Amino acid sequence: MNLPKGPDSLCFDKDVFMKEDFDVDQFVTECRKQVQLEEMREDLEMYYKLLKTAMVELINKDYADFVNLSTNLVGMDKALNQLSVPLGQLREEVMSLRSCVSEVIQAIDNQLSKQEDLQKKKVCVLRLIQVVRSVEKIEKILHSQNSKDSNSLEIGSPLLEGHILERIATEFNQLQFHAVQSKGMPLLDKVRPRIAGITSMLQQSLEGLLIEGLQMSNVDMVRHCLRTYATIDKTRDAEALVGQVLVKPYMDQVIVEEVVKSNPNGLQMMYTRLLEFVPHHCRLLREVTGGAISSDKADTVPGYDFLVNSVWPEMIRGIEERLAYIFNPGNPDIFYERYSISVEFVRRFERQCSSQASVKRLRVHPSYTSFNNKWNLPVYFQLRYKEIAGRLENTINDGLEAAPAGSSYRLQVSEVLWSCLVRCWSNGVYLSPLAHRFWKLTLQQYSRYAKFLVEVLTKTEVPKEPVRPLPSSASSTSSRTSVEEGGSESGGPAFLSTKQLVYIAADVQKLQEQIPELSAMIRQRLEAIGFKNFAVIEDALADSRACLSSSIPSLNSRMTLHLTERCCRFLKSASEVPRLYRRTNKDVPVRASAYMENALQPLHQVLTDSTGSVTPQMAQEWLRVALAECTQKYYETISEVLSSVRKMEESLKRLKQARKGASATTTTGGNGGPSDDGKIRLQLALDVEYLGEQIQKMGLQPSDITMFSTLMDLVKEARELAEQNQ
């Protein structure tokens, strides 16, 4: 039924009313999300009127049909009653026919069931007959080979020939098949002792024939015997027999704990002798079963793998029982040597297998898995982890000690970090099954080193220096003192010196440069185990590089702050220049003040320490930032001094004018030279010019230093003023 279409402005869809799961509450909730209740009510009333109109139109359209509906149904009851009688008779006839057909079908099913039962019994009887015939046939063959009929099935009967055994095995195979199919039959229970006797005799004869063939190196005898084993589906018994008779005695002779311990290379020698067993003692078996290269494929006996099922289990059983001590991981160096020798022994044994299928069977053999699980590799890694990570952690606890002479690093902790990283992947430590763990340890060491640098750069303090008083003579070189005497570079472990900061930057740069070398080392190891997704490795090493780089901004900030504070302590001495010249009658200054040399000495020291350690660009950036900060503060100091001098000069002039030319308070020299204020301005100008010269000697340009040009303009103006007042 289709509802009439409403206007597009309605807040609901008309089809929602026709849904079987229509719910009023849900409908109201959905509508309220769009409009208010009043508007929803208006829309519903509008659509209600539309429905009423449509219903009236529908009734008017089919009005005649509605009126004639009752008229058309007159006489319908009588017609239906007339049809009910013949329909009832037809139903009775159908039910009767159905009953007859059902009885016939049931009779047929009973006959088929009896026939099927008879067929099963017939097949069972035929199988029992075949069992009896097979037993009689085998006994007849045995009687024909032994004149003593009464002892034909006794255990002590002589060994049968190979071709006779093959005939017996073929018949015995059929006997076994029919006996299994006839399981539970009374007749089979009566024949079972005879079958057991045949089985015992056949097994004894096969074992004796196989042993005799191996001892006599009779290829035909061994081939017949193995074929017979395969015929009766007893290949595993043959392999087990070879393991007990041929392999075990040799293993008991070679795998001796005292012999292995008596020689430093005892384990290697033992493995060599074990590997000699296959070519010396298994040549005949491999030739018969197709395991040898020279064996004729057309005359081989398939289905055997004596190396996997006979030789290997006995080897591993002997090693695990008699040499259990080799699996002890207590000494990681000895454990690594034993494990490496053992893994090479396994690989050489795999190369002796006749095919890739044989190698696959070897690798899924329980003894193969057991041998691999005996090596407690997680414990070995824990010992190596404790050794490698412990060494790095101990060095970190020692702080920023200098690296030994001849090292490519500046700090001992960096030297130890690289040594530990290389050791993770070096011979004598790295084992391929633990590649993922050594890889994780590599990343952890990078992370630990980066965290150590962050701690050092954020928790240690910059050493404080006492502010030195300005020397009594601004031009006396003998009175200048060295910054190093203040002990700023020899603080305790809680302080960082500029040299240590330079060493940190140099080592971080060196470690980043050596990441490709470590990556090549790791790549070589992972390629050996078939790993190919090296993009993941490169991304992780790139993250480690970024982790190391994350400490550089803090280091740069720390370095420039350190240099700025040390330099500014002496640059503040510029405020003492007026005291040196006012009313002291000193000579006109001709060189920079002593405090300038002391103030710039830390910068020269950093430049010297950085040579050959970090890139020149990094060192100059340190100097540029530090000089910019120092110049800013120096400008403020000079500006204050010149302002004070100007105010003093103006005050003296006013005082002089007030006294009308009194000569007692004049600021000029006794010989009519420059005034004290002029000397002060001249000294400051010389200091700033000296700063510009030293900036150039450091490899920078004065224009690179913010505020330096402004500072030069300030002292240039002061110099010109001093020259005018002379």
TrEMBL record:
Signal peptide residue numbers: none
Region ranges (Disordered): 465-492, 657-678
Major place of residence: Golgi
Stated name of the protein: Conserved oligomeric Golgi complex subunit 2
A GO biological process held by the record: intra-Golgi vesicle-mediated transport
Keyword entries, A-Z: Golgi apparatus, Membrane, Protein transport, Transport
This protein's GO CC annotations: Golgi membrane; Golgi transport complex
Family per record: Belongs to the COG2 family.
Domain Conserved oligomeric Golgi complex subunit 2 N-terminal: 10-83
Organism per entry: Nothobranchius kadleci
Location of the COG complex component COG2 C-terminal domain: 373-688
